[in-house]
Amino acid sequence: MDFLKDKIRVTLENLNRHLRLWEQEIDGFSYMETPYKTDNVLPCADDPRFTVFEGKEWRLGGDRHAWFYKHVVLPEEVVGQQTRMEIFTGTRGWNVRNPQFIAYVDGKMVQGLDVNHTTFLLGNKREYDLYLYA
Q1: Residue 127 has pLDDT above 90, yes or no
Q2: Which residue of 69, 77, 103, 110 has the fewest CB atoms within a 10 Å radius of its CB?
Q3: Complete domains list, the chain, with CATH
Q4: What is the DSSP code (8-state) at residue 96?
């Protein structure tokens, strides 16, 4: 055994356990299929084409596009702390079937997301309007 590698692994595991003070899965996104996006104009949250997204997996096939929207309200105990959101694609390693996203927080583009880039910062407020273009 390599003592140094084991020591580093255990240290990283301990740090990772303390990385998250609070964690919650967010569901109840609204969903709307859309043509390929050519600008950064977000759809209106009350657009009647939005429907509640059921389930946890989005499977439309290749070269399909959609908007996801959610008004996120965080618990009072995390207000003032830096919060982030993680998106999991369910696939390891990049491939042509793996979805990619662009995340918008309060109307501003903040991060591109794929299998290797899964996290973006929300901020330290309590409420956010979150859009994901997939």
Answers
A1: yes
A2: 77
A3: 25-133 (2.60.120.260)
A4: T
